[in-house]
Design a protein that fits this description.
about 450 residues, alpha/beta, TIM Barrel, ten-stranded mixed β-sheet, about 35% helix, globular, binds iron/sulfur cluster
Length: about 450
């Protein structure tokens, strides 16, 4: 037997105990000093059989001739080429009602088109043609601000949902929205569409209102607080994304305190770095980027204050990036098709365009293949990285933007040990009774 290449060790040197987290199997095993030393000294055959059985079950130790990279490859292929579900991101418009200071879309001024009736029709046809035989069908609305054109949304939803019902597919929809345009009327009209909303905050009112502002420079914090109340009163599924950088990091505690004071405990909060990744934040402009360990600390803080959170989603994980999955495509207001939802301002990443019958034509196979086949095993740094099974090589668009190639790592560093530690701490608090496991060894 040999040690898995995907073990992360958390050690409590005072208590002489350790936790091993295997990033491939996502298993956690508690070990003592002696077992840790035997694993590291490559003396696995000296470990007691009953302990060895537990380590083997958790993939902490694996067969000598197992090629873990092959297993990883299979794991990624399974996710990438699953045929049970299909999903489309529809960008009804690039126009936005806000003028956020860090917006990569230039506040809807750089790209400013909105879907015509012709493109809506082609898009719906394309979805129907592509979705046959799937068990589930998902639509994500993205922008600009998708709710600027609610009639586009409701037209697509009505037709696609009717198709899904007719073919007994599970239907769901998500909105990546700035949230400000949700009203009781919109919520009522959406009630039959199994939907979930992501809205974004950038700090407490004083901070948020300097960043997420409308075209006249007015803050949107109080409006979003009303929307959160509306969602809670109507049992709308939603989560809050908190964008964090070094400038607003210290203010996030006040944000959480304010949300708690308003009775919003229990809401799911995800903490994301501004300026690094993913799906919706600016990725070209310089910003004071926050490290993953600090985000993990915010996640722990939010958890301790009564919010739901999952630190393991702080970084980019393969499940979080639909661009790399064959059955997911994004359609922009022109009817151009991309793998990545944030790529429409990179024409070289367009993979094709919809014709009048809703067929994907003018294929750019080079781009399609580069996106669909990207996986961490093709990237030297990621191939050697313990976090690749859960990170998946990071945000491909961020990698392209930073390094000029999709085949480069999306991360700047590999500080994911702290994320793993916080994840275990939140998920299995009992393991931390009497131990703090401060030392992280990769
Ligand atoms: S490549 Fe990056 S921006 Fe594009 S969908 Fe994936 S995580 Fe989002
Ligand atoms: S090198 Fe970076 S991008 Fe690649 S798998 Fe590791 S953490 Fe992710």
């Amino acid at each position: 037997m040999k040690e898995s290449a995907y073990n992360v060790y958390l050690l409590d040197e005072k208590e002489k105990k350790g936790l091993v987290f295997n990033t491939m199997k996502r298993s956690i095993v508690q070990i003592d000093d002696e077992v840790y030393n035997l694993i590291k000294d490559n003396q696995i055959d000296k470990i007691d059989q009953d302990v060895l059985d537990v380590l083997t079950k958790g993939n902490i130790v694996v067969d000598n001739n197992l090629n873990e990279l092959d297993i990883l490859k299979i794991m990624f292929c399974r996710i990438k080429f699953s045929t049970s579900s299909i999903g489309f991101t529809i960008i009804p418009t690039h126009v936005c009602n806000l003028a956020c200071t860090y917006c990569y879309q230039g506040h809807g001024d750089v790209l400013s088109e909105t879907m015509s009736q012709d493109v809506i029709r082609k898009t719906v046809e394309f979805i129907k043609k592509s979705a046959g035989g799937r068990r589930s069908l998902g639509i994500n609305f993205y922008g600009g601000e998708p709710l600027l054109y609610p009639e586009v949304i409701f037209q697509v939803l009505k037709e696609v949902k009717a198709f899904a019902d007719e073919h007994e597919m599970q239907f769901s929809t998500t909105f990546t929205s700035n949230g400000t345009l949700f009203t009781q009327e919109i919520v009522d009209r959406l009630k039959d569409y199994n939907y979930e909303v992501q809205i974004t905050l950038c700090g407490p009112r004083a901070v948020h209102d300097t960043i997420r502002v409308d075209k006249k420079g007015r803050g949107t914090y109080e409006r979003l607080m009303d929307v959160i109340s509306l969602f809670r009163e109507n049992d709308v599924k939603f989560h809050i994304r908190v964008d964090v950088d070094l400038d607003n990091y210290d203010t996030i505690t006040s944000l959480l305190e304010d949300l708690k004071k308003r009775g919003f405990e229990g809401t799911y909060m995800g903490f994301c770095p501004i300026g690094k990744d993913i799906c919706y934040t600016e990725i070209e402009r310089e910003s004071s980027e926050i490290d993953p360990a600090s985000l993990a600390r915010l996640s722990k803080l939010a958890h301790d204050m009564g919010f739901k959170t999952n630190p393991i989603y702080i970084h980019n994980f393969v499940e979080g990036c639909s661009a790399l999955i064959d059955g997911f495509l994004a359609i922009d207001p022109h009817g151009d098709v991309y793998k990545c939802i944030a790529a429409p301002n990179y024409q070289e990443h367009r993979i094709g365009t919809l014709d009048a019958e809703g067929n994907l034509t003018n294929m750019n196979y080079e781009s399609y293949c580069a996106w669909t086949l990207r996986d961490p095993l093709h990237i030297k740094e990621c191939r050697e990285c313990k976090f690749s099974p859960i990170c998946g090589g990071g945000c491909a668009l961020a990698a392209y933007s930073k390094n000029g190639s999709l085949l480069s790592p999306g991360c700047k560093d590999e500080e994911l040990g702290e994320i793993v530690r916080t994840f275990i701490m939140l998920r299995y608090p009992e393991l931390f009774e009497g131990c703090s496991y401060e030392t992280i060894l990769l």
